[in-house]
Amino acid sequence: MSWGQTVPPSRMFYVSYMNEIAVSEAREHLAEVIEGTQRTGEPVYLTRRGRAVAVVAVVVDPVVFGKLVEDAEDSLDHAELALAREEDEYFPWEQVKADLGPS
Predict the structure, then answer these.
(1) Second-level CATH architecture of 9-56
(2) pTM here?
(3) Is the pLDDT of residue 78 over 90?
(4) In angstroms, rounded to a whole number, what is the distance separating the alpha carbons of residues 23 and 63?
């Protein structure tokens, strides 16, 4: 199955790698989509009118998922901080404390 092809529900069990399925088909066959993702370990992209709108992926443990989300948010924060520093758009902590005054 090549990238960009939708897997018909009748072939879901026979395709070892599903990468895309329409939201309407996924709704009708959600259990099979999840089982296929668990079996292969590969994400499945849900599409609407040919455009990917969501991803079904297996995370073994909700704690691991939470950690992944937290790490991603931290990475974004660090990237935004680095960009702000490059553009000289940040305020030193001492200035912030002085501006806010005693609490």
Answers:
(1) 3-Layer(aba) Sandwich (3.40)
(2) 0.49
(3) yes
(4) 27
